[in-house]
Design a protein that fits this description.
UDP-N-acetylmuramoyl-L-alanine:D-glutamate ligase, alpha/beta, 10-stranded mixed sheet, 35% helix
Length: 279
């Protein structure tokens, strides 16, 4: 990579990444991801995010679903634990990674979700990934220096957060990424779209070369956030969060490119099957 403010994400960066696992390791070595996702009419987002997180292979995954969708979510997951949402912060204390947002667009999402989410974003030592409309629950603030925080908006969500037209944001994507990061305490931003951008308020911005227009399907973003949070929940992959984020973004697009080369009518469930297998 050249020493410039923008770089293309290169697959060469991911040689031997994620690193090989020790033969005598166990699931406790690979973290526990807690996913808060799923509401009435949007339960599938929780399922997609959880299945994508499985492809990252954290030690454990728990989905906290709104009570109204607990049964349809739980019925579709086997190795993933599913529980009914609770505002008890102690239920999150053993998590090494948190994901909020997929499928939380319903109007009846409990206010307790928003309140606890903001508290965990501010205080949790674990990495926190925020997807979908949950980004608008955040308010400008500062963050602890060593906290790993990631937001993954598509252009519409980013424009809504910045209160500007989508066309304006799309014309100035780098500036939008930096402004979102600045308002949210220098968090990492994955600004999705044609050539997804990864960066923060300062420093390099990375441009993803993988992906194609067939990623424009409902659930594609849930898959990315699930895979990304499943990686960041693993302690060994938290040392260099930028690299881990770039890997998730690159792999997501590369999986779509692999599918498009072999199967023209692929769907998001197929994308999950390919995650982590490219390269």
């Amino acid at each position: 990579m050249t020493d410039t403010k923008q770089n293309w994400i290169s697959p060469a960066e991911f040689e031997n990444f994620p690193p090989a696992r020790e033969a005598d390791s166990h699931k406790g070595n690979y973290g526990h991801l807690t996913v808060t996702a799923g509401s009435m009419g949007f339960h599938g987002a929780a399922v997609l995010a959880a299945r994508a997180a499985q492809r990252a292979q954290p030690g454990l995954i728990t989905v906290m679903a709104q009570e109204a969708v607990y049964y349809p979510v739980a019925a579709q997951l086997q190795a993933v634990m599913v529980d009914v949402w609770s505002a008890d912060i102690h239920r999150f204390e053993k998590s090494t990674g948190l994901l909020f947002g997929p499928g939380l667009a319903a109007a009846d999402v409990a206010e307790s979700v928003r309140v606890l989410f903001r508290r965990l974003w501010r205080d949790s030592a674990a990495p926190v990934v925020v997807d979908a409309s949950a980004i608008i629950w955040l308010v400008p603030h500062s963050l602890g220096k060593d906290l790993i925080r990631v937001v993954t908006p598509h252009p519409g969500e980013a424009a809504n957060f910045l209160k500007q037209p989508v066309a304006q944001l799309q014309a100035h994507r780098e500036a939008a990424l930096r402004e979102i990061s600045r308002r949210l305490g220098n968090c990492w931003v994955v600004l999705k779209g044609y050539h997804t951008l990864v960066g923060r308020s300062e420093g390099e911005i990375f441009v993803n070369p993988t992906g194609n227009p067939h990623l424009a399907q409902g659930g594609s973003g849930d898959v990315l956030s699930g895979f990304l949070s499943g990686l960041l929940a693993q302690p060994a992959l938290q040392a260099n969060p930028g690299r881990t984020i770039r890997y998730a973004v690159w792999q997501h697009g590369a999986a779509a490119d692999k599918l498009q080369a072999t199967r023209k009518n692929w769907v998001v469930e197929d994308l999950i099957q390919e995650l982590g297998s490219v390269g």
